[in-house]
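Input.
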Amino acid sequence: MDRAGVGRVCLALPGATLDHPFGEHHDAYRIGGKMFAMVGEMGGISFKVSDIAYEVLTEEGRARPAPYLARAKWVNLERIDAWTNQELAEHLAIAHAIVASKLTKKQRAELGLS
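Output.
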């Protein structure tokens, strides 16, 4: 997958938006104003994972703790194409779901989420 592919996958998720809070070379994908994935200027990607996935992915060396976001259980891949397209797309959908689940009931309803 490439940067454009990440955009297609993320923006296809319900209520997802894109902005550039750290400059135009960083893509931040959000749901309800909360970030669930980010593509960096150097071609890496960071995204939210579950506590268990964080432990497994970082212990196995498949991902590293995301700079500045590791304490919130985010992982980082130095290259977007480090995983298969399907696997990355699945993790991005999970990241979206994790963050969406923490939105208020009202926010979820406004975004058309159950």
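The radius of gyration is 13 Å.
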